[in-house]
Fold this sequence. Notes:
By secondary structure, this protein is α/β, with parallel strands linked by helices. Helix content is 32%, strand content 21%. The chain has ten helices and 13 strands. The strands form three sheets. A five-stranded mixed beta sheet has the order 2-1-3-10-4, sandwiched between helices. A five-stranded mixed beta sheet has the order 7-6-8-5-9, sandwiched between helices. Strands 11-12-13 form a three-stranded antiparallel beta sheet. Helix 8 runs parallel beside helix 9. Its EC number is 2.5.1.61.
Amino acid sequence: MTGTPSHGTTADGAPDHGAPARLGTRRSTMATSQSRMVADAITARTGRVIELELITSFGDVTKAHLTQLGGTGVFVNALRDELHAGTVDFAVHSLKDLPTTPAEGLVLAAIPERDDPRDALCARDGLKFADLPAGARIGTGSPRRVAQLAALRPDLVYVPIRGNAETRLGKVASGELDAVVLAYAGLGRVGRTEDVTEVFEPEQMLPAPGQGALAVECSVERLDGDLAYLASVDHPATRAEVVAERTVLSELEAGCAAPVGAYAQYDAETGRLRLRAAVVATDGAEAVRRERAADLASPGDLAAATALGRDLARQMIAEGADRIVAEAFAERDTP
C-alpha cells in the first residue's frame, strides 16, 4: 500500500473534523465488514468520517497452514507496519489474531463490545455434532478446536483447512467435507449464519481467548491527542474479559495456534468476573480444565482481571498445562 500520512489535523496541528480518518483493515469480506461496523459506530458517536484502507497481510496470501507459520501475528503485522509508517491512522483487528505481547509504540485504543464468542458447526444435511457418523470429515484450521472436538468425538476425522468462510463452507456444499467449524460471530459478519447447524456452548468447547471481540489499535502518542475519540467505542467490561483470557495465553507462553481455550464473563450486577480455561492435547486424550472468579472494583479494573488470568494459568501450569502446550508445539514442528 502506498499513500501519504493522514493524521486528521489541520496545518497548525489542530484536529480537523472534516478530514476523513484512515482505518487500516485486511481485504477479506469479514475484515472489511467488521471494520465498517467499527467505523460506523465511531461516526455515530463522534461525527468523525472514517475511510477504509484495504491492506493485504501475509496471512492472506500464503498458502501455508497457519500452524506451520506459528500462527502469531500473520494477520496483523502488515497493518502494524502501516500504523508505524503513518499511512493509516488506526487499524481494526480480530482480537484473537493479536499477539499477547504489545507492539512497541502502539496501543489498543478501544475494544468494542464483544459479539457472540462461541464456535459454530456447519454440517451437511442439517446434522448436529452428535449425529455425524463415525469417520465423518470435519474441517478446521484451529488446533484448539481439533483438540476439544476430539475430546468429544474421537471417532471423527479432523481435516486442516485454510481459506475464508465462503471457501470453507463451499467444501461442505461440494461434499469434500461433512462439516466445518467456524466462529459464530464471523459467520454473522459475512451473512452466513443460516449455514449453522449447531452452536457449541462453552461447556462443550471453550472459545479462543478474545474470540468474538475486535481491537482498535493506534500509536501511543496519538491516543491522547487527535485520536482520543477512538475511546468512544471502548467497552470496559469486554476489555476486562479479554484481558483475563489473554493473560492465560500469555502465562502459558502460547499463541493463537495453541490448543488453549479461555472464556471470561463479567456480571454487571455483582461485579464478578468468571474465567474458564482449558488446555487440551491435540488428540483430545488429556486436558487441564479449570475455572476461577474475582471481584472487580469496576468494569475497568484491569489489574484484577490480569491477576485472575495469571492465577488461573499458574494453577493450570502446576497441573501440567504447559507440558500439553509444549507437546502440541512439538507435534506442529515435526515434519
